[in-house]
Amino acid sequence: MATQKKTLYEILGVPRDANDLDIGLAYKRRTAELQRAVPPDPNAQSFVHQAHEILSNRERRAAYDASLVTAAEKAAAAEQQEPDLVLEGGEEEAKPRSKYLIPAIVGGVVLLLVIFLLLRSNNAPRPAPPEPVVVAPKPAPPPPPPKELGPEQILPAALLSVGRVMSYEMSGRAVPLGLALATEAGTMITTCHGIPGGSQLVVRVGADSNSANLTVTDEQLDLCKLAVAGLNTRPITLAPDDPRPGDKVFALGANAKGDFALTEGKVKALRPSPQGKLIELSVPIATGASGGAVFDVYGRLVGIATTPHAYGAGLNIALPASWIAEMRTRNAPVK
Length: 335
What we know:
Layout: H1 8-12, H2 20-36, H3 42-55, H4 58-67, H5 71-81, H6 90-123, H7 151-158, E1 162-168, E2 174-184, E3 187-191, E4 200-205, E5 208-218, E6 223-228, E7 248-254, E8 260-271, E9 278-281, E10 293-295, E11 301-306, E12 316-320
Antiparallel strand pairs: 1-2, 1-4, 2-3, 3-6, 4-5, 5-6, 7-8, 7-10, 8-9, 9-12, 10-11, 11-12
Helix pairs in contact: 2-3
């Protein structure tokens, strides 16, 4: 007897009333089994794929079910129409059986034809999807140039970042040493040369006085870093580049009343030194303003004023703000 051809349900291993979820799970399971099979069976994989495509599509599954006549249904129909009385002789017994043989053959041919057409339609080459067009993103517009500020705009912001450095003697007398600038939370920068060794330091910001301790003493750059307890200031903004000769700057100092004020000037030159280039200013540095800020026209710190100094008599010098990143504790070079 010839082997009966499997239905699409049997290929996936699901009953005819299986729902879409069961069909999908069976397809994944059968695909995994065939992928692990040694040697691989491409024909079986193709049948499983075609069975899943037909049974997972409602319209195609309905057309397939309509054409599907199982061997059991044929046998049941034949049994219902057989006479209860079986006559003797081969001719009478063969006639009822031959009555249903031709329709069964026709039905089988129709079923095979439908399956062939379905498989052929699925194997037809599909047009390739159009390649996506890649459009290069437009470059972001350049940021607008910063707007130049005047002293009346720079000074209010500067007052939030500057303090006066005081040293207290054993007698309790406060000695002003210069100015300090907040560069980060709880930290200020000032010049080192006016700080006496072992002194008790206090930084006065507005009406508040806060104790300060030296954390970095870089005598080669003449810059000291102070840790100030309870400091409530805004860190100053550093310029990304050193100034150039001819640039307009504003030097922070005090007026006749002792109030902070800005004096407009220019960068006269960049003078060489063993530590790097110094900024020579066209405006004098007031006594007690050592450690004060020198701003560019955008309100950014470009230098730290220093006085007195050993870089030449009659020169108004500021240390570049870029030196702050190079600070470390070290003694002055031996002369």
